[in-house]
Amino acid sequence: MDWGAIFSNAAVELISPTTAAYALAALGLAVHFGYTGLLNFGQAGFMALGAYGYAISILTFGFPVWGAFLVGVGASVIFALILGIPTLRLRADYLAIVTIAAAEIVRLLFTTNTYASVTGSANGLSGYKNEFAALNPLADGTYGFGPFTNNAYDTWLRIVAWSIVILAALLVWQIMRSPWGRVIKGIREDEDAVRALGKNVYAYKMQSLIFGGVLGTIAGMIFALPRAVVPSNYQTTLTFFIYAILLLGGAATVLGPIIGSMIFWVLLSFFSGFVARAVEAGWLPFMTSIQGGQLRFILVGVAIMLIVIFRPQGIFGNKKELAFVR
Amino acid sequence: MSANAVPQAAAPLEPPVPTKKPVKTTGLHIGEAAPGCAKVDPILVVDNVRRTFGGLTAVDVAHVEVPRGAITALIGPNGAGKTTLFNLLTGFDKPDGGKWTFDGRSLAGVPAYKVARMGQIRTFQLTKALGLLTVMDNMLLGAKGQTGENMFRALMPFLWRNQEEENRAKALDLLTRFKLDTKKNDYAASLSGGQRKLLEMARALMSDPTLVMLDEPMAGVNPALTQSLLDHILNLKSQGMTVLFVEHDMHMVRHIADWVIVMAEGKVVAEGDPHEVMQNPAVIDAYLGQHHDEDIGVDPDAETEHVSAIKELLDDER
Questions:
Q1: Confidence of residue B289 (pLDDT cuts 50, 70, 90)
Q2: Which residues of B touch A175 (CB under 8 A)?
Q3: Starting at the edge strand that comes first in sequence, how are the strands of the sheet with B120-122 ordered?
Q4: Where is this region: Disordered (chain B) (predicted)?
Q5: In what order do the strands lie in the sheet with B42-53?
Q6: What is the mean pLDDT of chain A?
């Protein structure tokens, strides 16, 4: 058993762009669910809009990187408005239903053959990385140490991805300790009480939906940069993985989604490496290597369940916040 | 409270009786004290407000005026439509029809948050303390016109830091008056029921309202806190605010209200001075039913709480 390779592969995930993308999407969800109490089950839809908005702008319209970025963000603002205008006046659970359905509509719209020339249908899109790579100020070569050694493009991508995550974390931290954040948290507790104090609850919920959605959209772009944009990546399971990360780290925290994403990906990679090699070594005779590939999700599920049972507030959550029955 | 308040001895076995007698405001109405009578200086005027739930008419108020600078009680048996009327007047519910004005401005169709911004602040029957916010954050949420509540300005603390400090000082002052200052950093969820009522009232005062609407401020409050709540309500009047409150505790109504509006089955059935209105046949009918003095073979011991409360009050008056 090559433990070195297993641990080194797991360590790679610690700072991978995918981890950064999940962290950012979970941060957006923390704004929605943890701070505002909005049950958004369509974060995958926001991410898809980011990925496709970026890829289509570059491939079809030849936009520069910043233009493609703005197209993605604009698309998610419009998406948030379409979701929010009819549902934010209603009870919280309606938003959950609408968002989960809307995210599926977005995914299926990108899958349909009708727009295959633009969206690439089920095969998705690729070949949009050159514009981003051209902005790379790093000279060719390898950077980093140990398991974190990467070529110039991957290093550049990691630097940009984690800078965005840190920037977004600071932004969320600052805005949640401002009077705006106080209103937002008040809405989570009881929106009628906040309304009775003269705050336009509807407008605040809309701002929160847009803010968290834009974070999800940028996460979608980071998610798309190391791979191709394929519609099947944006299924509802993506949203649920992000919820798992959020609960793991702590719903109403800033560091929780980031550390939660790191733990999630390191664990996933560790189990995947461990199970694959255990099957190879004949430790699990009842299992094929294909079945082993699925087992990692079961093990991650068990690990997350244990954390939620024994530390329900998440890793960074405040124990006091859960000590009271709502 | 006023300097010429007269101490009053507490009778045994009675609900906590205030130690000082509040100064009543009189001469509020024009003409006879009848349902819908005109007031000298009304702050809230309601005309033909109707709200039905299916076949049930919950509220059908033809005309009523709430006097400015006084404490007005809204009483009536359960299901009389008091809370529904509150919800309608504060924009939390939409009536089938009718109009109402606050300080001369029409409020029909105005959303709840705008009503609150105009200076008409309400509290709720079931207290709505924001449990997982600290007591101080609860208070700060009540302040009006905060620069930092704009999403973009929130990111620039130098724009709102001074205002925040002012609000904090004001909140601390209010919390001290309501004896909650030692709790300021605790979660509101850790407060007792009575303390939450106090917090909700203090929070409402953060916006310097002109009309405070309290929905059953005494419900579920232990007797030790009742006195302090009563004093706070009386203080609101002495600070120039108008108070409209819903209450079931007749002793409290009689003690602090300057004017009483009685509702039954959605309508205003009587109005008047708290001592006189209790003797009004319409009020007795509303609470006891129209045939309360006829013997219809009912066990006389089986009196409800309301019946005995009203009888006790009537006896007190004689």
A1: low
A2: 151, 154-155
A3: B120-122, B211-215, B242-246, B71-75, B259-264, B267-272
A4: 1-20
A5: B56-67, B42-53, B97-102, B105-106
A6: 90
If one compares A236 and B280, the residue with the highest pLDDT of the two is: A236
Nearest to B149 among A180, A190, A196 (CB): A180
Q: With contacts defined as CB-CB under 8 Å, which chain B residues touch A178?
A: 148, 154-155, 157, 160
Please check whether residues B151 and B167 belong to one and the same domain: yes
Q: Do B149 and B263 belong together in one domain?
A: no
- HSE at residue A62, side-chain half, CA atoms within 13 A, is 0
State how far the Cα of A29 lies from the Cα of A242, in Å rounded to an integer.
Answer: 8
Residue B196, min C-alpha distance to chain A (Å): 13
Q: Is the pLDDT of residue B60 over 50?
A: yes
Residue B260: which CATH number? 3.40.50.300
Helices (H) and strands (E) in chain A, counts: 15, 2
* DSSP annotation of A35: I
Decide if B256 contacts B22 (C-beta within 8 A). Answer: yes
CB contact under 8 A, A326 and B131: yes
Chain B partners of A183 at a C-beta cutoff of 8 Å? 141, 149
Contacts of A314 (CB under 8 A, 6+ apart): A246, A247, A248, A249, A250, A251, A253, A256, A260, A307
To the nearest whole percent, how much of chain A has pLDDT over 90?
A: 58
Residue closest to B198 by CA, chosen among B217, B223, B220, B171: B217
| pLDDT bracket for residue A175 (50, 70, 90) | very high
Query: Which domain covers residue B166, as residue numbers?
Result: 130-190
Distance from CA of B111 to the nearest CA of A (A): 9
Band (pLDDT 50/70/90 cuts) for residue B21 is low
Contact B155 A174 (CB under 8 A): yes
Is the confidence at residue B114, as pLDDT, over 90?
yes
How close A266 comes to chain B (CA, Å)?
A: 33
pLDDT for res B8: 46
Q: Is residue B283 part of a domain?
A: yes
Report whether pLDDT(B18) > 70. Answer: no
User: Where do the domains of chain A lie, and which CATH numbers do they carry?
Assistant: 3-323 (1.10.3470)
Query: Does one domain contain both B46 and B179?
Result: no
B143 domain-assigned: yes
Contact (CB<8Å) A198/B146: no
Buried b (16+ CB within 10 A) or exposed e, A55-80: bbbbbeeebebeebbebbbebbbebb
Q: Give the range among A39-48, A59-68, B268-277 with minimum mean pLDDT.
A: B268-277
* Best residue of B89, B151, B161, B186 to probe chain A, by most A CBs closer than 10 Å: B151
| ipTM value for the complex | 0.85
